[in-house]
Amino acid sequence: MGVSIHSSSCTISQPHYHIHKIFLLCNYILLGSASSCIFLALSLRLLPSVAGFFFILLHIITITSAVSGCTAVSGGSNKWYAAHMVATVLTGIFQGSVSILIFSTTSNFLAALKSYVREEDGAVILKLAGGLCILMFCLEWVVLVLAFKLRYYAFVEGDSSRTGGGKTQEEDLKNWPWPFQV
């Protein structure tokens, strides 16, 4: 079904090539924005506080989710795909929550972070991080939709290396009790 494009680790049919490239681009943007948020958080000197540690940890998990997304598409393993979907949903929810906290209660959020930076400068840095959190929130949901589409197309085309081992439905039915075998 379509022309196949062979790369070093996977085969992608021509109609899905652009979806794959957009998926990878979104993951790379996620990597860049999460690492930028980590640097902005470090510029606020947030490490002494527990909230600052969790703020940085959220972005580390976002980076891990983006890397697992690139691996899931390239390698085709169900484990990587499941890990990517779970991590992306959780980080998407938390990124949206953090961005709402940053923009609705900037001074209270900055006080909870126990930053040593002046409040005016800290508010600007925190709002920059909040803008990146909104970007990551939107991109994570785009990545989820694209990952689902890529997995669905791989399943429909019958690519057994990407759909979980290549068992057919008939092989599964042989192991069922007699009344369920049709």
TrEMBL record:
Record field: transmembrane: 22-44, 50-73, 80-104, 124-148
Keywords for this protein: Membrane, Transmembrane, Transmembrane helix
Name under which the protein is recorded: Uncharacterized protein
Native organism: Nepenthes gracilis (Slender pitcher plant)
